[in-house]
UniProtKB/TrEMBL annotation:
Protein name: Uncharacterized protein
Gene Ontology CC annotations of this record: membrane
Lineage: Eukaryota, Viridiplantae, Streptophyta, Embryophyta, Tracheophyta
Keywords, comma-separated and alphabetical: Membrane, Transmembrane, Transmembrane helix, Transport
Location in or out of the cell: Membrane
Gene3D superfamilies: Glycerol uptake facilitator protein
Organism name: Dipteronia sinensis
Transmembrane regions: 96-115, 127-149, 155-178
Amino acid sequence: MAGNMKFVVVFGGDVENGYGNRVQPFDSTRKYKEGGVIGEEKQKQGHTTLKKILGLYEVLNVNIWRASLAELLGTAIQVFALDAIVIYTIQAETKTPNLVMSTLVAIIVTILLLATFPISDGHISPIVTFSAVFTGLCSITRAAIYILAQCLGGILGALALEAVVNTFSLGGCTLTIVTAGPQG
């Protein structure tokens, strides 16, 4: 610790209150923010509680439900758009379908991330939400709500695609509209 210690000379400031020219210790390993040292709050609070880890207080938070709605809509649009892009590029028989698909996928994903990031951190995928839980960026309750919304969004996106596309077959995977026959 003593090897990392450096000193910084501060010039100017409020001399009347003792903040004039003086030498202040500067530790290169600590990060500073306005109002104190980052991580200082955790040392004062002690261990985190199970309630905080699970995030049970977030169930009643309106912003979580607003964010989950953004995840639902973002995932629905993503499933619909990406599947429609694949169907279009296969049916159009372009000479470079991979280039067209990758370009359009990059554009769609970028637009969706820009739209959902301010609201819900732009997960738009259960695996991203799952990994956010393990890295500590997201509570378990928030992740469960997001994953439920993302699964519902995926189903809604697939149903919207099914409503638009009558029949499409791609290597054994057929998308058809199922209707009731004479036997029910």
